[in-house]
TrEMBL record:
Annotated InterPro entries: LysR_HTH_N, LysR_subst-bd, WH-like_DNA-bd_sf, WH_DNA-bd_sf
Coiled-coil regions listed in the entry: none
Residue ranges of every copy of the HTH lysR-type domain listed in the record: 3-60
Keywords attached to this entry: DNA-binding, Transcription, Transcription regulation
Name assigned to this protein: LysR family transcriptional regulator
Family: Belongs to the LysR transcriptional regulatory family.
Taxonomic classification: Bacteria, Pseudomonadati, Pseudomonadota, Betaproteobacteria, Neisseriales
Length: 299
C-alpha cells in the first residue's frame, strides 16, 4: 500500500479543525509533520486533496470522495484497536451508558444492582436522554451501550419493552367537565405538555401535537407535575403515574381515539464485536430486568 492510516487521519483532522496549525494542536504534533503527511499523501496518490478557502482548508471534489471511503477504514481500525484494548485490560475501568428517560426506574435500578454485584471495578456513567439523545450518544461515541426509543441507522438492537402512554388531565380540568367523548378539536384549544428531545443532531417530535399552545419540558416529572396541577393535559407514561391514577389525582381523558399509545425501547450496543465484559454484562442485566418488568406488568 502506498498510503497509511496515519496520513488519512491527519487529512481528516485538518478538514475537521479547519487548518494545519489547528490539526497539529489537536494531534499533539508539529505543524511541519502534519503538512508533510498530507503533502506525501497527495504525492503518492497524484491527486489534489485540499484547497484553500479563505482561512480554512477544505477538501477538493476528489478529496471528498477519497476521504469518505478512508473514513470507513479509520472506523474499522479504531474498532480493532479498542477490541484489542478490551481484551488486554479485561474489565473496563469506565462504562458510558445512555438511557432513554422512558426506561422504568425499576428496570434501571435492578440492572444496576445486578451490575454492582459483578463489576465492582468498573465506574458507570449514566446519561439520561430523551428521544434522539440516544442516537447522538451512539453516533458521537459517547456511549458504549444505549437504551433507545428506536434503533439508529447503522446499528443493531434488541427490543426490551413496550411502554404505554395515556392521555390524562387532572380531575378538575375543564376537559373532564365537557362530558362525552373528546375529539381532536376539543383538545386543540387546551395547553398540551410535551417532552423536549435532548438530541441535537436530528431532534424529533413524537405523539399528537395538535394543541395550539404547547408547554415543552425537559424532564418527564415536570410534565407530570404540570398535568397533575391542572395546568395542561398530556400523554403520560403509565408506569410513571400509577400512584396518581390510583389516588385519582390524574384521570384518563375519554378520547374517541388515540387515548392510549405505545412506545418501544431497544437495547443497542455501539460496537458489539469490541464490547468489553462489563458492557456485555450490563446489557444482559438490562435484558433480565426488562423481562422481569414485563412479567410483572402482565400479572
Amino acid at each position: 500500500m502506498k498510503t497509511t492510516l496515519d496520513q488519512w487521519q491527519v487529512l481528516r483532522t485538518i478538514v475537521e479543525e479547519g487548518g494545519f496549525a489547528q490539526a497539529a494542536e489537536k494531534l499533539h504534533r508539529s505543524q511541519s509533520s502534519v503538512s508533510y503527511a498530507v503533502a506525501r499523501l497527495q504525492e503518492q496518490l497524484e491527486v489534489a486533496l485540499l484547497r484553500q478557502d479563505g482561512r480554512r482548508m477544505r477538501l477538493t471534489g476528489e478529496g471528498e470522495v477519497l476521504l469518505r471511503e478512508a473514513a470507513e477504514l479509520l472506523r474499522h481500525a479504531d474498532r480493532l484497536e479498542r477490541r484489542a484494548g478490551s481484551l488486554r485490560r479485561g474489565w473496563e475501568p469506565e462504562l458510558k451508558v445512555a438511557l432513554d428517560s422512558l426506561l422504568p426506574a425499576e428496570v434501571m435500578l435492578a440492572a444496576c444492582g445486578d451490575f454492582a454485584g459483578h463489576c465492582r471495578e468498573t465506574r458507570l456513567q449514566l446519561h439520561e436522554v430523551v428521544m434522539s439523545g440516544a442516537d447522538d450518544a451512539l453516533y458521537q461515541g459517547d456511549a458504549s451501550l444505549a437504551v433507545a426509543g428506536r434503533v439508529p441507522q447503522g446499528f443493531l438492537g434488541d427490543w426490551l419493552l413496550d411502554a404505554e402512554f395515556i392521555a390524562c388531565a387532572a380531575p378538575g380540568h375543564r376537559l373532564h367537565a365537557l362530558g362525552g367523548e373528546l375529539d381532536s378539536e376539543r383538545l386543540r384549544g387546551e395547553v398540551q405538555v410535551v417532552l423536549r428531545d435532548s438530541g441535537i443532531r436530528q431532534p424529533r417530535d413524537e405523539g399528537w401535537l395538535g394543541a395550539h399552545q404547547r408547554w415543552t419540558v425537559s424532564q418527564p416529572e415536570t410534565g407530570i407535575a404540570m398535568v397533575e396541577a391542572g395546568l395542561a393535559f398530556g400523554w403520560l407514561a403509565r408506569h410513571r403515574i400509577r400512584r396518581q391514577l390510583a389516588e385519582g389525582s390524574l384521570k384518563p381523558l375519554p378520547l374517541k381515539s388515540g387515548a392510549v399509545r405505545k412506545a418501544s425501547l431497544h437495547l443497542v450496543l455501539a460496537e458489539p464485536l469490541s464490547a468489553g465484559p462489563a458492557c456485555l454484562y450490563l446489557a444482559d442485566a438490562l435484558r433480565r430486568a426488562a423481562a422481569d418488568w414485563r412479567s410483572g406488568c402482565a400479572q
